[in-house]
């Protein structure tokens, strides 16, 4: 019996005592525990006093008070949540009305807003939160702008470094190109541009000629083994001179070329001069490094045939034409090339001696491709091209062209 009482006391202390202490029942706790501890004895011994019986009414009151407090707490929590939701709706309405309301507000700030005593106090508090939020956004924006500026400065420094390296590299390469051209002026093979065609061209044609010569000079300057360029029959007050000054400006006097008003026959021996013209009956077979080639500085939109050939015959010079028909299946049209194309072809022939590599600079629109098949197969391709591109009317002209082409190949 004593062990049962001890066990019951422990249960009461662990369960009832903390609950009673929370509700202020420390004074009545001892009789309650005593009655609970003595209840087993009372069942067996009915001779004891009634004061020692179990007090169930007090126990029921305690339990009911605890349940009421729990229910009140849940009700208060629900009321608080509904009040928070109502406050958020009010804030959303004020935001739509255009008042200064923060976009993001925490629960603590919302409770503080609800605890404000008046409507003006609530407005001031919301304005304070709104300004605080704006300051945070401005600080964040400033930090992002500062980071972007820092990244821009880093990128600019990298660009300046790369540009400085590129400029240094370009300066070094420019010096190397200038050194090569200076060597070619002493040891290189001469190449003559005949500048005596000003009267045969219009002002626009002269401008186009000078533009092509400028491209030729830059191409020659960047080659591995450049020519020594000569401008012969060049007059100081000519249109050529004016156009060159427009292009080169102050660099005109620093060009590593030879400019003279004399004729090329007065500068070089005639037996070494070869005038390159598309009208020449003689076809150039190989590139001769001991000869001096002459290129006529002329761009004629109307294609004046025979002008350069007549000039070379009057001077008693040897002439030559590029073997375009031998290596290319030529299309209808003149075989005149631009001056920069001629410079590319001559430089490639000088370096490699390969006609196919040199004639790659001929525009693709002027020919159908390189000759790599027999003549009868070329006729078939020509007929196919006629039917697809040119039509049946010009088919007979293409057939005649193929016949002439085959005759020339058999004669050679």
TrEMBL record:
Domain named SAM-dependent MTase TRM10-type: residues: 177-369
One cellular component term from this protein's GO annotations in UniProt: mitochondrion
Principal location listed in the UniProt entry: mitochondrion
GO biological process annotation, one example: methylation
Broad EC category: transferase
GO MF assignments: tRNA (adenine(9)-N1)-methyltransferase activity; tRNA (guanosine(9)-N1)-methyltransferase activity; tRNA binding
Entries under InterPro entries matching the protein: MT_TRM10-typ, MT_TRM10-typ_sf, Trm10_C_MTase_dom, tRNA_m1G_MeTrfase_euk
Subcellular location, record wording: Mitochondrion
EC number: 2.1.1.218, 2.1.1.221
Catalytic reaction list: guanosine(9) in tRNA + S-adenosyl-L-methionine = N(1)-methylguanosine(9) in tRNA + S-adenosyl-L-homocysteine + H(+); adenosine(9) in tRNA + S-adenosyl-L-methionine = N(1)-methyladenosine(9) in tRNA + S-adenosyl-L-homocysteine + H(+); an adenosine in mRNA + S-adenosyl-L-methionine = an N(1)-methyladenosine in mRNA + S-adenosyl-L-homocysteine + H(+)
Classification via PROSITE patterns: SAM_MT_TRM10 (PS51675)
Assigned keywords, A-Z: Coiled coil, Methyltransferase, Mitochondrion, S-adenosyl-L-methionine, Transferase, Transit peptide, tRNA processing
Matching PANTHER family: TRNA (GUANINE-9-) METHYLTRANSFERASE, TRNA METHYLTRANSFERASE 10 HOMOLOG C
Protein name: tRNA methyltransferase 10 homolog C
């Amino acid at each position: 019996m004593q062990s049962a009482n001890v066990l019951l006391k422990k249960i009461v202390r662990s369960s009832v005592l903390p609950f009673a202490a929370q509700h202020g029942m420390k004074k009545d706790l001892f009789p309650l525990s005593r009655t609970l501890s003595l209840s087993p004895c009372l069942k067996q011994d009915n001779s004891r006093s009634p004061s020692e019986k179990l007090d169930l009414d007090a126990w029921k009151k305690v339990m009911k008070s605890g349940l009421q407090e729990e229910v009140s707490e849940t009700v208060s929590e629900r009321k608080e949540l509904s009040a928070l939701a109502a406050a958020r709706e009010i804030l959303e309405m004020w935001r739509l009305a255009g008042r200064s309301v923060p976009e993001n507000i925490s629960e603590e700030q919302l409770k503080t807003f609800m605890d404000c005593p008046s409507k003006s106090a609530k407005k001031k508090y919301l304005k304070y939160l709104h300004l605080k939020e704006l300051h945070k956004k401005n600080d964040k924006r400033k930090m992002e702008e500062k980071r972007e500026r820092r990244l821009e400065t880093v990128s600019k420094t990298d660009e300046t470094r790369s540009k400085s390296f590129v400029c240094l590299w370009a300066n070094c390469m420019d010096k190397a190109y200038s050194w090569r051209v200076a060597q070619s002026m002493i040891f290189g093979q001469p190449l003559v541009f005949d500048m005596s065609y000003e009267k045969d061209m219009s002002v626009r044609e002269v401008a186009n000629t000078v533009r092509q010569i400028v491209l030729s000079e830059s191409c020659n300057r960047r080659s591995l083994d450049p020519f020594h360029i000569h401008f012969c029959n060049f007059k100081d007050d000519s249109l050529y001179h004016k156009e060159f000054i427009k292009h080169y400006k102050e660099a005109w006097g620093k060009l590593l070329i030879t400019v003279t008003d004399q004729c090329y026959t007065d500068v070089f021996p005639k037996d070494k001069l070869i005038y390159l013209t598309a009208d020449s009956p003689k076809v150039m077979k190989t590139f001769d490094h001991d000869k001096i080639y002459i290129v006529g500085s002329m761009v004629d939109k109307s294609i004046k045939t025979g002008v350069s050939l007549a000039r070379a015959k009057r001077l008693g010079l040897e002439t030559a034409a590029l073997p375009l028909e031998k290596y290319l299946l030529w299309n209808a049209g003149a075989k005149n090339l631009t001056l920069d194309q001629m410079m590319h072809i001559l430089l490639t022939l000088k370096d490699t001696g390969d006609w196919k590599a040199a004639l790659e600079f001929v525009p693709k629109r002027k020919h159908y491709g390189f000759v790599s098949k027999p003549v009868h197969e070329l006729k078939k391709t020509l007929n196919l091209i006629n039917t697809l591109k040119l039509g049946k009317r010009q088919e007979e002209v293409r057939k005649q062209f193929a016949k002439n082409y085959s005759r020339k190949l058999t004669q050679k």
